């Protein structure tokens, strides 16, 4: 695949999301799992070429920080959206942002934690066996 191997991960994410919507994601475990698979594919599209432990550790730490920050911003923006009911443009902006932060908190952060932890352990293990 050469330098364009990230396209395979993006294609995997698109296929997983499409499959999730086909089977349904509302109270449906297979659909939710497919969305998590898509999230992991998106993170892997970025991280699959890393060959050192440090970037994976940064991904792990950043994802652990992302979850509470995104959840807090989701709640804050939801409240601001409710308070700005008289300004439709402002309310729409807040609603779009709070949905984005919600999705980042429940899908992107866990995927980053998983890829960061597994990647760190794999690269660390390889470096230990090479010595």
Put the structure in a nutshell.
This protein has helices at 6-23, 29-47, 53-83, 88-130. It is mainly alpha-helical and 131 residues long. It is globular, with a radius of gyration of 18 Å.
Tags for this model:
single chain, 131 residues, mainly alpha, 0% strand
Low-confidence stretches: none
Approximate strand percentage: under 5%
Task: Give the SSE order as H and E letters.
Answer: HHHH
Question: What's the shape?
Answer: globular
Kindly state the percentage of residues in helix: over 70%
Number of domains: 2
Q: Which class best fits the helix and strand makeup?
A: mainly alpha
What does the model show?
The protein is mainly α and 131 residues long. It has 2 domains: 1-49; 50-131. The protein contains 4 helices and no strands. The protein starts with 5 loop residues before the first helix and ends with a helix. The model has no long low-confidence stretch (mean pLDDT 93).
Topology:
Blueprint: H1 6-23, H2 29-47, H3 53-83, H4 88-130
Helix pairs in contact: 1-2, 2-4, 3-4
């Amino acid at each position: 695949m050469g330098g364009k191997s990230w396209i395979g991960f993006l294609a995997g994410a698109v296929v997983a999301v499409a499959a999730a919507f086909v089977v349904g994601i509302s109270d449906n475990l297979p659909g939710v799992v497919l969305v998590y698979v898509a999230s992991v594919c998106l993170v892997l599209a970025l991280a699959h070429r890393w060959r050192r432990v440090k970037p994976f550790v940064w991904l792990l730490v950043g994802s652990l920080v992302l979850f509470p920050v995104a959840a807090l911003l989701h709640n804050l923006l939801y409240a601001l959206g409710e308070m700005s009911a008289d300004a439709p443009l402002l309310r729409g902006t807040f609603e779009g942002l709070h949905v984005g932060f919600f999705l980042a908190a429940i899908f992107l952060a866990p995927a980053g934690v998983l890829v960061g932890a597994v990647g760190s352990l794999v690269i660390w293990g390889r470096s230990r066996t090479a010595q």
